[in-house]
Amino acid sequence: MREGLAVAGPDKMLTEVEAVAELASGMTIGIGGWGSRRKPMSVVREILRSDLTDLTVVAYGGPDVGLLCRAGKVAKVISGFVSLDSIPLEPNYRLARQDGSIEAAEWDEGMLLLGLQAAAWRVPFLPTRAGLGSDIPTEMPDLQTVRSPYPEATSGEHEELLAVPALDLDAAFVHQNRADNSGNALWLGEDPFMDDLFVRAAKRSFVSTEQVVATDDLAGLADVTHLRISRLDVDGVIDAPGGAHFTECPPDYGRDEAFQKRYAAAARSDEDWAAFRTDFLDIDEAGYRAKVDELAGTEAKG
Question: Dihedral of CA 70/193/258/19: which sign?
Answer without folding.
Answer: negative
